[in-house]
Amino acid sequence: MLFRIDKSRGSQVLIEVLGEEFEGTLGCDYFSAYRKFMKDVGISVQFCLAHLIRDVKFLTTLPDLPIQLYGKRLLGALKALFHVIHQHETLSEEAFGTALEQAKAQIIRIGRDAAPSLIDAKGKERRGEAQNMAERFRKHAEAYFAFITTPGMDPTNNVAEQAIRFVVIDRHVTQGTRGANGRRASERLWTVIATCALQGRSAFAFILEAVEAFFYDRPAPSLLPAPP
Question: Is 101 helix (H, G, I), strand (E, B) or coil?
């Protein structure tokens, strides 16, 4: 895991960190910088289904009844997908794959084609929230289902969000940093702590080894996992 503190949340930061030759699949929410990075670099993306569910639930809270019904239909289709995911251990690989594809097709069909529309006398769309969701599916529907064909890919970015909780607490307690040196130190310490936690290693032991390596002119320890 790698942390980067930057004054910008733009796609240029992603290019600086991941590069234009990135060949993996990026798991992320629907933030505009990820979409621009996706468009400019042509990478594979898995947009977070948990964030999509949150946005769909918002539609069900709006006062317009057709939008509510659209949101409820879409939410039901998403729940059906996760029901299939939870049956992975009880289904054959062929049956599981077929069920996933069927659930995916149903979500895309509802999301893209079932959104209500209402144009007023001035030609303005009065059900913009529903049409914005439909447009999302028209442009990026497949990016919500990369996990189906990408081994090891999670349909949500919950793991990443859980991994950064300690950073949120740290920044709340310390009020952040005041300069470039503090930012670099925080980036490196957070990277060590989170990566060691993922690997089941002691962050304290790693930092101690790194400090000793510096003072005794020895090779620095690596955060890269050991080869199998």
Answer: helix
